[in-house]
What we know:
This protein is an all-alpha fold.
Amino acid sequence: MKTARLLLLAVLVILTCGYDRDVANINDEANRLFDQGKIDEAKALYEEVKTLAPESAEVRYNLANVAYNKEAYEDALKEYLALAKAKSLEAKLKSHAYYNAGDAYYRMQKTDEAIEAYKKALWEDPKDEDAKFNLELLLKKKNEQNQEKQDQKDQDKQDQNKSTKQSIM
């Protein structure tokens, strides 16, 4: 009985290692295709990996990248945010998910949300220079827009005061 259990355990370990290797090989091939710009082919392989390893955060991240690359920003954003909120996700991947969510928000012209996503990316990985650069760029852009709005209000007020003075005379 003890020998049978050990044999069964050995078979399971061998099968599991082979399974993991297959998943990794397919995912690596999908990554290679993605890097070559063969997005639809990569997506098909990522979908295959997802059926073999449905809980894989990496494949979910890769599929979100496919959606982003196809300019399906809402779909990509939904997946990036779901990944980023997962408690078990490692900090580096969580940071990447928030960073990419920031990029998706930016593409959707949602500056405030992009700023918050970049802040969260930096919270997870304070050394992320790209997130820091994008955050600083958007904050500068937002400050310039706010200044332009304030300048326009001031100009409108001056114009109104001139108009009022002319009508009194």
